[in-house]
Amino acid sequence: MFTSSRLTVARMRRGMTKSRLADLAGVTMRSISAFEAGEMDPSAETLAEIARVLRFSPSFFTRPAIDRPPVTSASFRSLTSMTAGQRNAAVAAGALAIELSDWLEQRFNLPAPSLPSFRGADPETAAEALRGQWQLGERPIRNVVHLLEQRGVRVFSLAEECRQVDAFSLWRGGKPFVFLNTMKSAERSRFDAAHELGHLALHRHGGPNCRGREAEREADTFASAFLMPRASVLATAPRFPPLQELLKLKKQWNVSVAALVHRLHAVELLTEWHYRTLMVELSSRGYRTTEPDGCERETSQILNKVFAALKAQGMTRQALASELGVQSSDIDALVFGLSFVALPAARDSASRVDQPSRVHQFLRKK
To answer: d(Cα 286, Cα 291) in Å, to the nearest integer?
Structure first.
């Protein structure tokens, strides 16, 4: 039976308008609108052509209704700098990630969400409180992605062409999701992960006050305080340090030198003049985009473990994609830069993943 919501997700994921899809599939735009509205079902021949154009398996459109998050539930950095197509493609990618996550949860015991709500709290206070609840103390966080996964946050990649989509996050079915643009620098992705954690903790229930510049400022403040605790910075960083010293000091917290300069200014270790002078020097040297001595890129411990388990049980990329009715490239896009374990391209055995598997000890204590 045809599921209309899946056509909308597939079209958005490929960045197509209804008019464009209608032209390529040889049908009227009115028909596409009727298909998506559930007013009529396409014929088998029409569905096959639509599936071919959108590069989805016909079986994708006959699976149960897909959970497509509304744009208002996602914490995009700036809706004004994104086109509707970019925004819709990102949300559709989120829908596919939720499906993949559900599929994995049916086969593996993944960590349960353990993220309290700090809605309405001061961002710096919330960051300190969350560090306390997670027993992190003042220590630097070695791997933010691992930490989020340990606490039940589902982390996926957002391998989008548009650079306007840095990252976004959302809550679905009581589970927090974070989508990272892993084509950014390692330091930027690490800060993005902490920024999205801020959104999840501070703006859990959505609403108009949880979007816009103020919400972004709160998430930035949270991320800065979470990665660079005030007491740790005050005890470690000198007053008025030169840029060369900051390039060494940033390794203490694995952040960009720009993020460190912002934090030193926030805790009043830099005067306004010194802060602006350093930012000008950063820009003149090109360090706002790339900088020397970058940190190691963070990958997903959970995705690596479950993919290794699936590989050992004979699951291939094509078989996994077929289970979900998508292309192998869609799976690759969701884990790009996060998993180094690749499923084989072709099935080497007749084994199937039929029984749930356990993946123990995803993380050590931070």
So the answer is: 7
**Dist CA 307 CA 340 (whole Å):** 9
Task: Report the alpha-carbon distance of residue 245 to residue 247 in Å, rounded.
Answer: 5
CATH homologous superfamily for the domain 1-66: lambda repressor-like DNA-binding domains (1.10.260.40)
Tell which residue, 202, 249, 208, 203, has the closest CA to residue 226. 202
**Within this chain, domains 1-66 and 69-227+299-366 share the same CATH topology:** no
Write out pLDDT tens, residues 122-142: 999 999 999 999 999 999 999
Nearest to 153 by CA among 164, 167, 169, 129: 169
Q: How confident is the model at residue 206 (pLDDT cuts 50, 70, 90)?
A: low
**Cα separation, 293 vs 177, whole angstroms:** 30
Q: What is the structure's pLDDT at 209?
A: 54
For residue 79, which of 67, 97, 68, 91 has the smallest C-alpha distance? 91
Tokens 């899946």 belong to residue: 6
Q: Where are the domains of the chain?
A: 1-66, 69-227+299-366, 230-284
DSSP, res 142? S
The span from the CA of 112 to the CA of 151, in Å, is 7
Residue with the bigger pLDDT between 160 and 177: it is 177
- What's domain 69-227+299-366's architecture? Orthogonal Bundle (1.10)
- Euclidean distance between the first and the last CA atom of the chain, given in angstroms as a whole number: 48
pLDDT of residue 339: 86
pLDDT band at 290 (very low <50, low <70, confident <90, very high): confident
Instruction: Dump pLDDT digits (tens) for 300-340.
Output: 999 999 999 999 999 988 899 999 999 999 999 999 888 88
The DSSP secondary structure of 283-304, one letter per residue, reads HHTTTTT--SSPPPPP--HHHH
Q: How far, in Å, are 4, 52, 100, 278 from residue 38 at the CA level?
A: 5, 20, 24, 57
106: exposed, middle or buried (Cβ count in 10 Å: 0-12, 13-18, 19+) = exposed
210-231 residue pLDDT tens: 567 888 999 999 999 999 999 9
What are the C-alpha distances in Å from 71 to residues 78, 81, 91, 206? 12, 15, 7, 11
